[in-house]
Amino acid sequence: MDSEQDFERSEPIASEPSGKPGGSVAALGAIVAGALVLQIAGTLLNTLVPLSLALAKQSPLLIGVVGSAYSVGFLWGCFKLPPLIRRIGHIRAFAVFAALQTMSTISIALLPAEFWVVPRVVMGLAAAGHGICIESWISGQAHPSKRGRIFGLYQILNRVALIGSQLAVGYAAIQMESLLLLAAMAFSTALIPVCLTRARGPDSSEAVSLKLKLLWTQAPAAVIGCLYVGLMGGPLVNVAPAYGILIGLDQRAAILLTASVQIGALLLQWPTGLLADRLDSRIIMLAAAGSVVAALVALGITLYLGSLHLLSLLALFAIVGAGSIPLYTVAVTHAFVRLKDEQPVGLSAGLLFLWGVGSTIGPLAGSAAMQIIGPQGLPIYFAVLSIGLCVFLAIRLVRKPAPGAGEARHEARPISVPGMGSRLTPIK
Question: Which architecture, in CATH terms, is 210-403?
């Protein structure tokens, strides 16, 4: 007999319902705490790996291949891991992915740089698994009226951990090998709060695969929103520093440019999540994308007049970050409102996959725009994306207005997923 079932019989957890909206604060706190530690470890690695390769004077080609390996693993994991999570449960799956992350981190510390591709693929795959576990767990247990705020808090903590980890790599007088070991320790530490919780993860039906066509049919704004965040966020993190250097900033100012994006996203994350619980998500996304367009127009005018100062540049990029990166929370909330009877694991996997596609393509597209147009190709790229999102959302709002008393009244019907052999049923 399954040991987890025995545990459930001998240790009733009536006070901590699982698999139901409105799960206990302790259960949600455990998964958010684990996610916070994972973010610290992941940011350490995502900063250390390219930095170590650059300091070792490895070829740009190898640096690019190692970076792409992570994205390949992430996208692969979004498609392949949902059935595993359904089969073994969220807590066991979380532990498996943490073990893979720890092993891969230690492998990077031991292997020559030429062999880092395989560990980075495994890391990307495990990161996708963790993301699916975390987001489906939060979405499955959070009460619908508070889901946006809980996701907002989750993203705020992630943003704080991201900024702190980057500062640790940049300013802490610690050797690279020691930082890798700290990252491995953090991956293992993330297991502690999750494994100590008495609540189980969300209930899973037999079918966990969600085709992107279904997501597009039921929640097209969520699809476009997740793609938009990836297409914007990737270049804002990876290409914006190069943009700063090309327009004449020194290295310190270029780093501040990237930091301003993260700070802007951090400040608007909670208000955005709060509004997502109360208003039509499409209106929020339209207003946010409109603010990005306005900031980019102001940037273009000041550059044309030759009157741009560093503080103005930082403020404008903070607005761009605030109007784009937090929209992932809004898109996720919109999808779960539209498909509230859908299986959360498959839905989270689909949304993460869309974000992953955008974050993979975005840096390449942003860099190509700079290569063709010059440094201002990056703001033009951002403007085209944001204008496109505004047009799409405006059309959707005209064709399908929001329900009378807000989006939360939308009733999604049970949906059959072809080829999965069972009907998806509401989570109870």
Answer: Up-down Bundle (1.20)
Of 236, 215, 175, which Cα lies nearest the Cα of 358?
236
Alpha carbon 263 to its chain centroid, in Å, reads 16
- Quick check: 232 and 362 in contact, CB under 8 A? yes
128-154 pLDDT, tens digit per residue, is: 999 888 878 877 666 666 666 777 677
Give the Cα separation of 61 and 427 in Å (integer). 47
pLDDT of residue 420: 29
Q: Phi and psi of 425, rounded to 5°?
A: -120, 155
For 45, other C-beta atoms within 10 Å of its C-beta total 28
Domain at 18-202, CATH homologous superfamily: MFS general substrate transporter like domains (1.20.1250.20)
**Model confidence at 207: pLDDT above 60:** no
E-assigned strands of 43-168? none
Residues 257 and 313 sit within 8 Å (Cβ to Cβ): yes
Tell me the C-alpha distance between 46 and 248, whole Å: 26
pLDDT computed for residue 371 by the predictor: 83
Q: What is the 3-state secondary structure (H, E, C) of 166-198?
A: HHHHHHCCCCHHHHHHHHHHHHHHCHHHHHHCC
> Which pLDDT tens digit goes with each residue over 335-365?
888 887 666 667 877 888 898 888 888 888 8
**CATH topology identical between 18-202 and 210-403:** yes
pTM of the model: 0.69
The C-alpha atoms of residue 117 and residue 398 are separated, in whole angstroms, by 47
Instruction: Inform me whether the pLDDT recorded for 223 exceeds 90.
Output: yes
65: phi then psi, degrees, rounded to nearest 5: -65, -45
